[in-house]
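Intended use. Records like the one below are meant for learning the mapping from a protein sequence to its folded structure. Do not use them to infer anything beyond what is encoded.
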Amino acid sequence: MSNVETEPAQTPCGPEENSDARPDGTGVEVLTPRDVPLGGPRAMTVRRTLPQRARTTIGAWCFADHYGPDDVARTGGMDVAPHPHTGLQTVSWLFSGEIEHRDSLGTHAYVRPGELNLMTGGHGISHSEVSTARTTILHGVQLWTALPAEHRDTGRDFQHHVPEPVRLDGAEIRVFLGSLAGSVSPVRTFTPLLGAELTLAPDADVTLPVDPAFEHGLLVDQGDITFNGTRLTSADLGYLPLGAPALTLHNDSATPSRAILLGGPPFQEEIIMWWNFIGRSTEEIAQAREDWTQGRRFGEVTGYDGDPLPAPVLPNVPLKPRRNRR
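Structure written out for the chain above:
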């Protein structure tokens, strides 16, 4: 799901985090989520861990919404009307359920568990997301990566990939972006990235060699996991600075645990995130909003039964670029 808040803050900030971070890469900073009710015909509440006041990005990962398990019979599921994006790539990953995706490239695809859908909205793209009639429980993550300045106006694109699971002693890994545990994703990105689903058996210990030039984040979906010595519970995002040559994970639960691992070299650019746009200035964001309102630039989504989402009103003060505190 995209950021369809009706009154989006420029920098959505979570609660003060419990921080145990140390600059040598051996400490984990724990980021806890905030609940965000999304607008649209069917309002869903998601748990948002990126961005926060103290951390805007992990590598180029700049947005992380975690939702479900959502009983569609009770809530109505997902119905997000056509809406625009600039300056980013969206990464859709499900644990259960099914979502129908349509975009202004003419793509008509489905998001299913264990299958990656990555959409590039550089200069401008629009899309819709609707849970299907086959869906009973909707559960997954929606992630964004910021495009570097030299590629922020790149053309529209859509990629689909089904990663083969890698089975280790006590773990199963699906690498949807980058490389880990001998598995390499063919999906194209504009900065080095790592994205993987990890499932750990009860009481399992796993050590994963990683690139020490990457910073990493572990978003726990279910169970309790000790991540490089720090215990994380469901919905926590553990942040590990660059410098660590390996990640150590222990499943503290009596049942399988599951998490999403994110990584990449630190993203050094300042960005402005507002609604579904990423830019570098208030003027750039305002132009994207005006183009969407006037029906320019973003193309048309065909096959969706309903009107596009209207753009929220911009605040009457300049938007401030954000970057991580180092």
